């Protein structure tokens, strides 16, 4: 342990608080680099020069803060005296003290307001409630994430910056430096497959392929700073932030009442937590891939309800398909049915609602939307049949007129021949 570390630790025990925490936020020094960076940039050891080189692009540097903001010392002294502990210099802050080091500014609403009044100032407080913070402070476990595990010191960037370690495209990688490292996590006995599974999920597909940043990555479900496994009681709330329609139906269900007592984690029981896949009708019922088979049997009273729910959805799908086919046939034959095709889209909307209503886990909820959809499909089908009727009528009409014209032509030809014969005999 370096002398500075010993001093730091001693001060921690003697004064019951940390010397870092005791300090007020260091004010920004302005655009000039200061002696620390000037000397460090040219030091041969990468360990000493890399921080200075990286820091140029750090958000703190862009706001005019120098090295002293975190390390203390005297940035006007060009010699080694700059690093004088008497001037508040701290070599390498202990992991236990990082939260306080960053929190010195980030927990100070008054101070932060000068820079960005919209920025939250609860990171340190939240962090202390997380599994990470709790283990660090209660069990002295320094393998957990601290502020600089997720925001690498010297290259800290705002989450909106695509190069930031906490940009939505990068968060999973950042968490996985530990959570996907089986060796590092060995002593805890927790799975290390979250990232691998998450990469197969519809959520990551939306982010990576569709660039839809509204889909969740690790911190959207676990919190940025209050990282904890979502408990049984709040899994629904986590998913419900974004899937509120499903969550509202689910909240009224028998499952929502019973699952917490059975220790079953809500939405995750049927959809998984990290490997969430697109959910189709096959999830409902007793076929392969159905989520209900785990707890229900087809011939039980609940099983019969499940089969009926699936039957309702299938009936709407079939009816929509039939109406669509007949209208398309009419359209291809040249009958104007665009309005009917447009109206039929209402059946697709009803199908979406019915699939959401499955989450109430009652026949009534599903019936309500399926019935509305069936009304639409039956109107569309009627219009299709009517169009086909018109088509038949037009075809018969056409056949008759063709026959009449043909008869006239034949008559005409016969008449001409007759006239020809008459003129040649005379
Ligand atoms: C004249 C050059 C020079 C100046 C100015 C200077 N440093 Fe250093 N710094 C060094 C050298 C050389 C070392 C390595 C010392 C060692 O290994 O004992 C070092 C080490 C460090 C370390 C690593 C300590 C450790 O225990 O690993 C930190 C952090 C640091 N300096 C920060 C600062 C800060 C902050 C300032 C400005 C207040 C500053 N330095 C100013 C040359 C300088
Ligand atoms: C936002 C706070 C912050 C600022 C600003 C900052 N540092 Fe650091 N620095 C840290 C923390 C925390 C550590 C220890 C943890 C780590 O290395 O990730 C550290 C570690 C170091 C080390 C030791 C690296 C090692 O691997 O042993 C050096 C050298 C250093 N800083 C130099 C600097 C210099 C030079 C500047 C200015 C150009 C600077 N730091 C600015 C927080 C900061
Ligand atoms: C000397 C005060 C100070 C210290 C110490 C400090 N910060 Fe900052 N930090 C700021 C200020 C000021 C900003 C700029 C806020 C803004 O304008 O958006 C900032 C910005 C940030 C941002 C980007 C926020 C955003 O969305 O714009 C992150 C992330 C961050 N700091 C993390 C840290 C971490 C981690 C530490 C500790 C290693 C730390 N800070 C230490 C003052 C400080
Ligand atoms: C387990 C990883 C992790 C740890 C530990 C962590 N952060 Fe963050 N932090 C994040 C993520 C992820 C975001 C991005 C949030 C977003 O997308 O809005 C973030 C965002 C921030 C921001 C931007 C404003 C905000 O709240 O969104 C600041 C400032 C910040 N962190 C400071 C800190 C400080 C200070 C600590 C230590 C007390 C810390 N962080 C510890 C992951 C972490
Ligand atoms: C520096 C390594 C490190 C990083 C980075 C890290 N963690 Fe952790 N995390 C740990 C360790 C160690 C534990 C303690 C293991 C335990 O309690 O089972 C832990 C615990 C957790 C737990 C509680 C698990 C449980 O067993 O109940 C969750 C959830 C978690 N981390 C999420 C995250 C998320 C999300 C991120 C990224 C935003 C992240 N972690 C980044 C090391 C890390
Ligand atoms: C869609 C929400 C969601 C996303 C995204 C997510 N998690 Fe989770 N995670 C959960 C839920 C819910 C649980 C609790 C599962 C349970 O109780 O069965 C969990 C559990 C965990 C645990 C505890 C151990 C375990 O596997 O059960 C860790 C560690 C963890 N997640 C880390 C991560 C990391 C790292 C990422 C990003 C790669 C991530 N999570 C992404 C919802 C999510
Ligand atoms: C008991 C099992 C079960 C639970 C619990 C459950 N779901 Fe579902 N979920 C399903 C089934 C089955 C489907 C497929 C319905 C269909 O397509 O016929 C589905 C479909 C979905 C869909 C896709 C809907 C669509 O438009 O295709 C989303 C999103 C969804 N669920 C989210 C949630 C959320 C959020 C929760 C928790 C509030 C939750 N689910 C709880 C079984 C469940
Ligand atoms: C931050 C927002 C957010 C959170 C939190 C979230 N999701 Fe999603 N989810 C999305 C987005 C965006 C999509 C892709 C678009 C869509 O289909 O709605 C999606 C897609 C899905 C799908 C596939 C829907 C389909 O059409 O087949 C399911 C199932 C799902 N999420 C379940 C969950 C569950 C379960 C949780 C909680 C463990 C959860 N989601 C948490 C935003 C979120
Ligand atoms: C983790 C176990 C579990 C899973 C998975 C599960 N259920 Fe249930 N469900 C229960 C329990 C427990 C009850 C209450 C006892 C009963 O009625 O069988 C119940 C009851 C029901 C009921 C009866 C509700 C009432 O009002 O009578 C329906 C309907 C139902 N579930 C539908 C489903 C569907 C659909 C699925 C699959 C998408 C499913 N369940 C998956 C545990 C589960």
How would you concisely characterize the structure shown here?
This protein is an all-alpha fold and 426 residues long.
Structural write-up:
The protein is mostly helical and 426 residues long. The protein has three domains: 1-139, no CATH class; 157-228, no CATH class; 301-425, Up-down Bundle (Butyryl-CoA Dehydrogenase, subunit A, domain 3). The protein contains 23 helices and no strands. The protein has helices at residues 3-15, 19-22, 35-40, 46-55, 59-62, 68-71, 98-106, 109-113, 123-129, 131-139, 147-150, 171-179, 182-185, 194-198, 202-210, 218-222, 235-240, 244-251, 254-262, 268-271, 301-332, 338-357, 363-425. Helix 7 (98-106) packs antiparallel against helix 9 and helix 22 (338-357) runs antiparallel to helix 23. The model is unreliable at 1-19 (pLDDT under 50).
The first-to-last residue Cα distance is 137 Å
Bound molecule types: heme C
What's the average pLDDT? 91
How many strands? 0
Helix content: 55-70%
Count of helices?
Answer: 23
- Number of structural units classed as domains: 3
* Secondary-structure element order, N to C: HHHHHHHHHHHHHHHHHHHHHHH
The percentage of residues in β strands lies in under 5%
Class by helix and strand content? mainly alpha
